[in-house]
């Protein structure tokens, strides 16, 4: 495993819409492990592939409840709205208030290529929305109040 360089605001990869992963294979799993190591080393709670220079629909998240490694995540349902403070490893030392759905349902593939469905609320819902936005070239500052 390796700690990867986190791209910062101004890098065009952060504004590029990502491509779906065709097949979850050893290369995908290696990237997921490297991304998780990078996120932990940076003391983050989430990281999207574009933040390490890879334009693929891959994220890792850990809010203290265990690592979620997700491939091709899609938000399929949302409810409620809540405003909260966010930061980003790609935009150091800048926090802003952002309105997000209070509860979400995400479908994705896990690191083995199995379909998973995650029902999330609170911090997990916020982090998943933040990271999935990265996959569409959207930064939290675009949605900040």
Structure, described:
It is a single chain. By secondary structure, the chain is α+β, with helices and mostly antiparallel strands. The chain has one domain: Peptide deformylase (Peptide Deformylase). The protein is 23% helix and 34% strand. The chain is built from three helices and seven strands, in the order αβββββββαα. The strands form two sheets. Strands 1-2-3-6-7 form a five-stranded antiparallel beta sheet. A two-stranded antiparallel sheet has the order 4-5. A hairpin with a 6-residue loop joins strand 2 and strand 3. It starts with 25 loop residues before the first helix and ends with a helix. The mean pLDDT is 97.
> Can you tell me the CATH topology?
Peptide Deformylase
Q: Supply the number of structural domains.
A: 1
> Ends: how far apart?
38 Å
- Spans of 5+ residues with little confidence (pLDDT < 50)? none
Overall shape: it is globular
Order of helices and strands: HEEEEEEEHH
Average pLDDT rating: 97
Going by CATH, the architecture would be Alpha-Beta Complex
The level of helicity is: 10-25%
Percentage of residues in DSSP E strands: 25-35%
Biggest sheet: strands, sense, closure? 5 strands, antiparallel
Strand-pairing-aware structural class: alpha+beta
